[in-house]
């Protein structure tokens, strides 16, 4: 084999080596990307609980979030999944107005066709999801309601499900968790926005805090 053939063979081997290293790097990055996506998607999906939707006596709207929770409850009410809509009293007022947020929600529901007598507000003022579970349990028990649909944002359903089932552990009242269907939060895309990261990380911290017995503020 002359010198020219050796040079060609060496060049070919070098090119193949470079190509193999490049292909290996691309494969590694692809696996890393897919693995990261599946991990982030799984983190979002873990927070979402959606029980089978069946008729109940009451539809409970948990506080927080935007008006999408109320819209979801109204849609369920109009589809006759529940006869009564329950709001939780936070004591919060509308910004720059001396009007309770719960009162404003009540008016909006009435304006959308829900009779005043079919809208209930908890007697206990709440400041956390645990407070809401306790207040809702008291109201449902006093009214002798045997079932309820709990409506909240998707990212909040896991923690709400755990807390409500803990509080209702010895109660015969049947609960089902319903995530808002038109929510901005999606397990496939939450990590594409700063808002998604903020809510997801905070929810995991709150969930861990509850499991460790830390009082939610």
Task: Describe, in plain words, how this protein is organized in 3D.
This protein has 217 residues and is α/β, with parallel strands linked by helices. The protein folds into 2 domains: 1-46; 58-187, Rossmann fold, CATH 3.40.50. It has helices at residues 3-46, 68-78, 101-111, 129-143, 157-167, 194-211, and strands spanning 58-61, 84-87, 119-121, 147-152, 174-179.
In short:
This protein is an alpha/beta fold.
What best-fitting shape do the alpha-carbon axes yield? Answer: elongated
CATH topology of the largest domain: Rossmann fold
What would you report as the Rg, rounded to the nearest angstrom? 26 Å
Which parts are unreliable, with pLDDT below 50 for 5 consecutive residues or more? none
Characterize the biggest β-sheet.
5 strands, parallel
From the N-terminal CA to the C-terminal CA, the straight-line distance is 81 Å
Q: Going across the major beta sheet, what is the strand order?
A: 3-2-1-4-5
Q: Provide the domain count.
A: 2
> H/E element string?
HEHEHEHEHEH
Strand content: 5-15%
List its traits:
217 residues; alpha/beta; Rossmann fold; 2 domains; five-stranded parallel β-sheet; 6 helices
